[in-house]
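Narrative of activities, Objective 1.

The group set out to show that a structural description can be obtained from nothing but a protein's sequence at a throughput compatible with the screening campaign. Below is one input-output pair from the validation batch, recorded exactly as produced.
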Amino acid sequence: MDGVQSVDEEAFRQFLKRGGRKANVVERILRIVRSYEAYLHKYADGKTLDEAAPDDITTYVTWFEEDQETSAKGQLWAIRYYYRYSGNKVMANRVAELREARTRKTQKEFRLRDFRGVNIRYVAKLEAVGIRDVQQMRTRGATPSQRVKLASELDIPEESILELVKLSDLARLPGVKGIRARLYYDAGVDTLEKMAKWDPEGLRLMLIEFVEKTGFDGIAPLPKEAASSVKVASELPRIIKF
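Output recorded for this entry:
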């Protein structure tokens, strides 16, 4: 890369191509990564990409958004590829967190009452204390102690609070909302950790069998959706403690 000696550009380029990125996309990613490392060199004591810490990417995003007066979501999209390539899970997770936060700003959060099969009476109690959507549920029910407190204060069974938290966490996956989250949950794939361990085709076949045996009112995911869900589940930072 121009002015950057710490990255094997050709190896990174081949990594991107193996992942199915088209030539113009590869070049866009490389340009953004070059720009990010140039920032590190100038403003972060000459650090390389591999020397950068989570605080550095956070500061870079703040600087970029103030300088360009636009979201850094596109920059984070590209930079995450580098940290996947380098195997730096700490940085990859921080980039994913920052990007997810910016994606949420442009999307209307999914309402708890729109999940299939939830107890609306319990949902109404949560709504009364300001927990109406999946983001609020993930924030207020992220830890066991938070869930115990909610259950006690609102007179809701702990297992029902946990169910809503798990459904809300599954809803971070693209396209997974009311019906699909319920299918995954009922079939036992109720956390991102469990989802990430599946082979996509094995997951799809299991869900086909589950739908047929239980009469679930919905269909199993198609191969592309199953592959996407497993892939994204393996990449998303873990924000819920079980």
